[in-house]
Structure formats: structure tokens, C-alpha cells
Specification:
- The protein is of the alpha/beta class and 249 residues long.
- It has a seven-stranded mixed beta sheet with strand order 3-2-1-4-5-6-7.
- The chain is built from nine helices and seven strands, in the order E-H-H-H-H-H-E-H-E-H-E-H-E-E-E-H.
- The N and C termini lie close together (5 Å).
- The protein folds into two domains: 165 residues, 3-Layer(aba) Sandwich (Rossmann fold), CATH 3.40.50; 74 residues, Putative phosphatase, domain 2 (DNA polymerase, domain 1), CATH 1.10.150.
- Bound molecules: xylulose-1,5-bisphosphate and magnesium ion.
Length: 249
């Protein structure tokens, strides 16, 4: 029986990644660095999950192995970036992706449990939820950032979300936007729906049992990309329960 839905954050709940990119660039400038990540460069850097890990990869690649001073500076950059990102989200820079608020509401009303499983830092999630779910945090469990020993594509963060929800992989469905995120959820034993995002246009969504442009709304149906299709091109709780009963229940 379908008991829970588990959502990735960046690119899935909202199109956040360009805001992360802008926040990194502002942090670089505020700390006197002439570094600047273009959208194209950031799309490449997004193959490295985790902002701290992404920054470290960029430094190693472009500026050599970081010494102790550089490592302190990298930590300052990421802290500053997280503060800037939080301010941007608080200013209402981000809306939830199509269908997210509707499906979360449907699931809560039906008594399902909800979780978030993300590589991003906890403050980013708390701010995004506070701004975009004004009636209160609908998620029963949040697993994110450094809580997972290994970041996506490793399954750790989805395994942690399942544990905190108290459900088995076969009792839940995961929602992801990226290849490493799909891999992470699959390796945690979860069936995955992929909603391609702005920064994952080039990603293979292989492994997702359904790939769509977004979850869709009655008045704004999605584009079906691959795998299972959805009545009216809208992913509803009723349709998810039906799929789950036929394939995983
Ligand atoms: C996406 C990520 C995060 C964000 C940046 O996470 O990889 O690292 O890009 O956030 P997900 P941080 O798709 O799993 O939500 O700088 O806080 O890591
Ligand atoms: Mg994502």
C-alpha cells in the first residue's frame, strides 16, 4: 500500500538551482574574489552534488589543491552563500513547481506521510518551506545535507528519510529531477518519478518509471517524456495509488 511520498528539493520542489548559482556569485564578490559561475559553467559543476563539494571541486580544478587558508575561505564562502540564498528565498524569489502544492495537499488530506530527501543544507529547506507552505511545514521528515554520510548519488539520504518516516521502500514513491538523484532513490529501493528541471535538461532520466516535465495541473497539463503516463497529463494522488497498487503494492 502507498504510505508515503518522498521529494527531492532542488529542481523538484522548486527551480532553485539558478538561485544557488546567483548566491554563490554574490558570495564570491562579497569576499573579494573575481570568480563568477555562468549558467553553463554551473550546469557542468552540478554533476558534483552538494554545494561545499561543488565549490571544492571548482577550487581544485581551477586553483589547485586548497591549503589550510583556502579551506577556511571555502567554508566562509559556503556559509555566506547559504545566508544570501536564504535572503533571496525569503524575498519570494521562488515558487513551487507545478503540481507540488496540489499533490502535497492531496497526500496530507489522505493521511499519507511526506518527506524531503535532499543534498542541500537544512537552512535552505527550512526557508523554502516557510515561504512556500504558509499553512505550516507539511513534511513529517526531513533528511538533508551533511546528515547523510555520503551525498547523492549514494542512497544514504533516501534511506534516512525512509527510516525517519518508518516506511519500507515498497510503501513509498520518490520524486527527483536529476540523474544522481534518481540513482540515489533507486539504490534506496524506491520507485522514482522524474520531473526534468531547467538544469537537468541534459540528464538521462533512465531508471525513473515515469519522466514528465512537471507534475501538472488540471489547467496546465505536463508533457510526458518517458515511461508511465498519467490520465489528463496530471500526476494525482489517485493515479499514484493506482500505479502503486498495480506495480509495487
Ligand atoms: C541539490 C544540490 C545542493 C544545491 C546547493 O540538492 O546538490 O547542493 O545545489 O545547496 P538536491 P548546498 O537536488 O538533492 O535537493 O550549497 O546547501 O549544498
Ligand atoms: Mg534535485
Amino acid at each position: 500500500m502507498l504510505k508515503a511520498l518522498i521529494f527531492d528539493v532542488d529542481g523538484t520542489l522548486a527551480e532553485t538551482e539558478d538561485l544557488h548559482r546567483q548566491a554563490f556569485n554574490r558570495a564570491f564578490a562579497e569576499l573579494g574574489l573575481d570568480w563568477n559561475w555562468s549558467p553553463e559553467a554551473y550546469a557542468d559543476l552540478l554533476t558534483v552534488m552538494g554545494g561545499k563539494e561543488r565549490l571544492a571541486h571548482y577550487v581544485r580544478t581551477e586553483h589547485g589543491e586548497p591549503d589550510a587558508r583556502r579551506r577556511v575561505q571555502m567554508s566562509e564562502i559556503h556559509d555566506r552563500k547559504t545566508r544570501i540564498y536564504g535572503d533571496l528565498v525569503t524575498q519570494g524569489a521562488l515558487a513551487l513547481r507545478p503540481g507540488i502544492a496540489r499533490l502535497v495537499e492531496e497526500a496530507k488530506r489522505a493521511g499519507l506521510r511526506l518527506a524531503v530527501a535532499s543534498t542541500t543544507s537544512r537552512p535552505n529547506i527550512d526557508t523554502l518551506i516557510a515561504v512556500n507552505f504558509p499553512k505550516g511545514n507539511p513534511f513529517d521528515a526531513i533528511a538533508c545535507g551533511d546528515e547523510a554520510e555520503r551525498k547523492k548519488p549514494h542512497p544514504d539520504v533516501f534511506v534516512l528519510a525512509l527510516k525517519r518516516l518508518g516506511v519500507e521502500p515498497g510503501e513509498a514513491i520518490a520524486f527527483e529531477d536529476s540523474a544522481p538523484g534518481i540513482r540515489s532513490a533507486l539504490d534506496a529501493g524506491l520507485p522514482v518519478i522524474a520531473t526534468r528541471s531547467l538544469y537537468t535538461g541534459g540528464h538521462s532520466l533512465e531508471g525513473a518509471f515515469s519522466a514528465v516535465s512537471d507534475l501538472g495541473e488540471q489547467e496546465a497539463p505536463h508533457s510526458h517524456l518517458a515511461g508511465s503516463a498519467w490520465p489528463g497529463d496530471v500526476v494525482t494522488l489517485a493515479a499514484l495509488k493506482d500505479w502503486h497498487a498495480r506495480h509495487a503494492g
